[in-house]
Amino acid sequence: MPVxxxxxxxxxxxxxxxxxxxxxxxxxxxxxxxPRNTRRLFAAHFANHPRLDDLLLCLSEVxxxxxxxxxxxxxxxxxxxxxxxxxxxxxxxxxxxxxRTPKNSSPTGRGLILLDHLASAWGVEITGSGKxxxxxxxxxxxx
Length: 143
What we know:
This protein is an alpha+beta fold.
């Protein structure tokens, strides 16, 4: 996963597991550029995924929700589980995301609706120290 040029401040790579694994784990800052930077790193890492656009759209929505509504620390994990890519976004808030019914003119409130339509499965796991919002997109990157 090449990251060239200036350092990416809002999404720092914690771990990229390569030996027989396609996992990537990032630490994400509570910054408005974090969703874009996270998307860029995941796009490079899962570049050959057959549904890369869907994966990146769902990733962007979930990371944006964490940045806007949650509490740091924010961590993002992407991994291949069986024949799907599973993304997990963890943060320090125990509040579950709220499903909204946005007006047509509203620019926000569609993240969970997009997960319903694009992910094969998704959910929320609440722990004593925060929560993890996860989703799965079928297909594995071509090698």
